[in-house]
Structure formats: structure tokens, C-alpha cells
Amino acid sequence: MPAGDAEVPISSDQEIVVARQKGRAMAMELGFSSVDATLIATAISELARNIVSYARSGKILLRRVQGSSRVGILVVASDEGPGIPDVQQALRDGFSTSGSLGLGLPGVRRLMDEFTITSQPGRGTTVTVKKWKQ
Amino acid sequence: MAKRESSTQVATTRHSQAVNLASSEASSELLRELVAHLRQNRTQLREEWVSRIAETRLLTAMTKEEIFAEATSVYDSYVEALETETFEALQAYARNLSERIIPRGVETHEVVGIVLLLRDVLARSLFAKYQADFNKLNRILDAYEPAANRIANTVAVGFVQERERVIRQQQEAIRELSTPVLQVRERLLILPIIGVIDPQRARQLTEQLLRGIRTNRAKVVVIDITGVAAMDATVANHLVQTVEASRLLGATVIVTGLSPEIAQTLVTIGVDLGKMNTVGDLQGGIEQAERLLGYKVIPSTEPR
Amino acid sequence: MEVPILKQGKFLIATFQAALSDADLNQLRVGLVRQVVKLRSQAVIVDVTAMDVMDSFASRTLREIAHMIRLRGAETVIVGIQPEVAFAMVQLGLTLEGVATALDLEEGLAYLNERFKPTN
Questions:
Q1: Is there a single domain that holds both residue B96 and residue B33?
Q2: What is the CATH number of the domain that holds B27?
Q3: Residues 6 or more apart from B146 whose CB is under 8 A from it?
Q4: What share of chain A in percent tops pLDDT 70?
Q5: DSSP code of residue B181
Q6: Quick one: which of A18, A125, B153, B185 could link to A119 by a disulfide (CB 3.0–4.6 Å)?
Q7: Res. B27 pLDDT band, cuts 50 70 90
């Protein structure tokens, strides 16, 4: 693993806290404001939570990234779970986590700057998000 | 067919890997040699560098003593980066240095200039040392140049990044000044918003307001948008989020000055205006706020 | 993780810590309700000042706590949500709708004392 990467295996709710604490620490190290570090930690918490709730196990990768004139943090949440049958639906706003079902993906997208998701039913899901330091 | 090609590819890859390994070993050794030379001649090379800096009239914002002190650190960091072939320490040092000299008025061309001067001074000393052995000189320079270029790059980029950060900070401070959160009474904050709000400013407003609620222990906030002509859906969302976030901090928000256009935008994004506390104008909003806070409005004619 | 639950007159004050796991939150939910019943409290103040992240599960648990405590005839006030945490929560659409909130413990107590003031 390249220096500066952190990978957290997610298989229980305890690791949700570990993943988000590592994320916050990395964000602070990169010089993100306290507010942004909280947004990042919250997004990681939600992504890790989805893994635990729907896929039982997976992993979260945290990585520093370099843009042309700025630094950022990359978070990749991946699992080999059942996958999301209708990704478009999951991304539609209104599909929030305050309801009973809901992956909170629109919320995670709002918290971060970049967001991509790939999911195949039966194969798993990978959500990649990035936030750049202002 | 494919199999044979791939086995040739493997053989070629292995060969070039071997060559790379050999040449990187050799260049590591050469680097060690030149690092030793640079360390041995540290005092003299550093002095030469400092006098070149003075000659070319760079770093005029700094005193001779300061230049000497920084030159020493830069020299040592430079040699260390050459030696370890890692650049994190140098990057950190560059940022640190930039943080110190930017407030002094040092500019980008000066920083780039002095690093290139150092590169020259060291390169010339290598020429002088190895001029008798042309082949060796070539190999030494082959080892030195990429590392030296990377160092120059690292320092320059570090400086520029720090400068950009400072500029952004200043811009942020200006934005903050232009959007005051006013404490009018105990527990009552007023946030008058004037002009154009883009999503970035909207977000900054929210952050400022939330901090203000905590600092001032506000129980009611009046957000006046009389001075806002129009609002797109993104900014309207921010307004709604601001109201919701304020409530999480125990504060009630009253929105005043809502134009019909903005009211329409809010409805379009799905806001239930019935649930939002809105009053026509700022004055009315303040009065309602005072009522909420339990202030009794005593008419001046009432006998004491 | 042990979460301290203090009794203050007719009120209970539960101070949540920073890194509570889901299991901790679940235990809390059960424990708090039990205490309310046992001590016949009128209200519970849940102080989340130390929580640096409030995600969907934490938010849902707080709403469930408030709901269950209401079923026992008592009130819940959430206090101490930090500005940045509030900001992140609303981005995720977590508004704690239906649950009373106050700035901090002092405000929470003031609110409850006002609510449960004996009427003359």
C-alpha cells in the first residue's frame, strides 16, 4: 500500500467508528478545516454503515490525493455484497437516511465534492468520494 | 501466438527491470558520493550561495543574518533530500519556510531564484571536482540533475501553495467582514443578507451563523433577505439547511423579507412554507422575535 | 462504554461520549428508558457535546429514545450539538424532527424548569 494510505476492514459496527476517526485524523493532517473534517468523517460513517447494514463486510480505503494546485482526501467504500438493484433510485433525493430504508447516498454526495458509484447486483458496490481542501 | 508474445514480453520486462536495478544501484552510490562531497564542503558552498543571493539582490526583505540562518536550513534540507531521495521532509520544510517569509513580503520569483542559485552553486562545485574524469562527471550529473530538479520543484510548489492558501484566507476574511452577524439584543441575532449569494458564500454564512448562535447563546435568529433579489435552488436549499441546523442548536429562525419570487423557489424545491417561520419585513420579524423571547413591549405612555 | 446518567431533581442527564458504537447506543436506549421508569423522571436531557460525528444511526437512536421516553410520559431534550455537527447533519437530511433541542445543558435545564414550573 502506498505510504499515506489507510485501509479499514469493515465487518461490524465497531469499525465504523475506527474508519471515521481515521478519516478525521487524515483530514486534519491534510489541513482541512474542522468543519470539513467533520463532513468527511460523517460521510465515512454513513458509507461504512451501509457496508455493515447491507453487505455484512467490506472495506474503506482512505488516501491523500494531489490535484494541480490543491490536496484532497479520497475515500473508497467497497464491498462484495448484494449490490444496489436501482442505483438511480438510490441517488434520488428524498431517499434519505432519516426514513427506515435508505442508503443516505444523496446526503453523502452533498457532503463531499466528488462522488461516483458502481454497483452490480450479486457482485457488490463501490462508492468513491473525494473532498478537496479549499 | 498470444502466449509466445507474452513470454517475450516477460523476458523483456525482466531484462529492463534488471537494467533499471543496476542503474538505480549505481546512481544511488553516486548520489551517496556527491552528498558526502556536499556535506564536506558545506561551509564554503553555503557562503558562496549566500553571496550569490546578495549579488543578484534577492530576498531584500530579509536581513543578512536571517538569510544566513535560512540558507543553512535550506542547504541542509537540500542535501538531506538528495541523500534520502524522499521529499516529504523537504515539502514540510518548504511550507514552514513559506509560512514565515510570505508575511515578510518575499515573492515567488525570489524563492525560485535562490533555489536555482543553490542548484547552480552545487552543480559548479561538482564540475570543479570531477572535471578530470569526464565520464564520471557525466554519471554524477545524471544522478544529481533529476533529484535537484525535483527539489527545486518541491520548494517552488510548496511556496506557491502556501501563498495561495494565504490569499484564500484573506478572501475569506473579507467575505466574513462583509456579512456581519449582529447581536441586537441578548439572545437575538440578526443576519441581514444583501446582494448576490453564491453557494460558497451561502455555506460560509451558515457556518458563521451557527458559530454566532453558540457564542452569543442566541435563542432567536432573524434572517433578513429583503436585499436578496433572487435565489437559485442550491442557495435556497442552503437557507433551509441553515434554518434546520439553527434549530439543532436550540435557536428559532424567523425569515423576513421573502419576496414572491424566492417564495416560489422555495416551494419548487419542496419546502413547506407553512412550516417555515416567515414575517413580511425586518421590523415585524424583530418584534416577533422579542415576543418569542418574552420581552414585553412597554408603550412609553404607561405609568410606572 | 459507560455513559454517566445523573439525576437532577425530577430530571435525568445523560452525557454521551465521543466514540459510541452502535451497540453502546442500543444499550443506552434501553437503559435510559428503564431509569426514567424507575426514578419516575419528568424529563431526560441528552448531552451530546462530546459527539464529534452524528450519523444516521445516532440520529435515529436519539429520535427513538425521545419517542420511547414520551410513551412513558416524560420529555427529552437534546443539548450540545456542535455547529459543525449540525451542519453535517442537515446535509444528510438528519433534522431530529419532533425532538426538542437546546444549546447546552444550562439552556436545556432552563427550558425544562420553565416547562415544569408549578403553576400558581
A1: yes
A2: 1.10.490.70
A3: none
A4: 90
A5: P
A6: A125
A7: confident
Does B147 map to a domain? yes
Query: Which residues from B are below 8 Å from C96, CB to CB?
Result: 248
Q: Write down the pLDDT at residue A101.
A: 46
Collect all residues with Cβ–Cβ distance below 8 Å to B145 and sequence separation of at least 6. none
Q: What is the pLDDT of residue A14?
A: 92
Rounded distance between C-alpha atoms, residue C43 and residue C12, angstroms: 6
pLDDT tens-digit profile of A29-65? 999 999 999 999 999 999 999 999 889 899 999 999 9
In the predicted structure, residue A94 carries a pLDDT above the cut 80: no
Asked whether residue B159 falls in the same domain as residue B201, the answer is: no
Which residues of B are less than 8 Å from A134 in CB distance? 168
Q: What are the residue boundaries of the structural domains of chain A, listed by start?
A: 6-132
Which residue, of B175, B199, B218, is where some domain finishes?
A: B175
- Domain spanning A6-132 has what CATH number? 3.30.565.10
**What pLDDT score does B276 carry?**
87
- Report if pTM > 0.80: no
Task: Tell me how far apart the alpha carbons of residues A44 and A57 are, in angstroms, rounded to a whole number.
Answer: 15
Domain that residue B108 falls in: 13-175
- Following CA atoms B174, B179, B184, B185 in sequence, which dihedral angle do they give, to the nearest 10 degrees? -90
Q: In what order do the strands lie in the sheet with B188-194?
A: B182-185, B188-194, B220-227, B252-256, B278-279
* Centroid of chain to Cα B121: 32
State the smallest CA–CA distance between residue C73 and chain A in angstroms.
Answer: 24
Tell me which of B94 and C68 has the higher pLDDT: C68
Kindly report, residue by residue over C48-57, the tens digit of the pLDDT. 999 999 999 9
Q: Is C92–A45 a contact, with Cβ atoms under 8 angstroms apart?
A: no
Q: What is the CATH number of the domain that holds B212?
A: 3.30.750.24
Compare CB distances from C103 to B207, B211, B250 and report the shortest one's residue: B250
Is residue A26 predicted with pLDDT exceeding 90?
yes
Place of cell 527539489: B151
Three-state SS string over B239-260 comes to: HHHHHHHHHHCCCEEEEECCCH
Taking residues B250-263, report their average pLDDT.
Answer: 93
Task: Please list every residue in chain C whose beta carbon sits closer than 8 Å to the beta carbon of residue A99.
Answer: none
Domains along chain C with CATH numbers: 5-115 (3.30.750.24)
Q: In what order do the strands lie in the sheet with A71-79?
A: A6-10, A58-66, A71-79, A124-132, A114-120
Chain C nearest CA to A120, separation (Å): 25
3-state secondary structure of A69: coil
Q: Are residues B19 and B160 in the same domain?
A: yes
B115 close to B71: Cβ distance less than 8 angstroms: no
Same domain flag for B67 and B158? yes
Q: Please judge whether B213 and C103 are an interchain contact, meaning their C-beta atoms are less than 8 angstroms apart.
A: yes
User: Has residue C65 got a pLDDT over 70?
Assistant: yes
Helix (H) or strand (E) holding B152: helix B134-177
**Helix, strand or coil, per DSSP, at residue B75:** helix
> CB count, 10 Å around CB of A44?
32
Buried b (16+ CB within 10 A) or exposed e, B211-236: bbbbebbbbbbbbbbeebeebeeebb
Instruction: Tell if the CB–CB gap between A69 and B168 is shorter than 8 Å.
Output: no
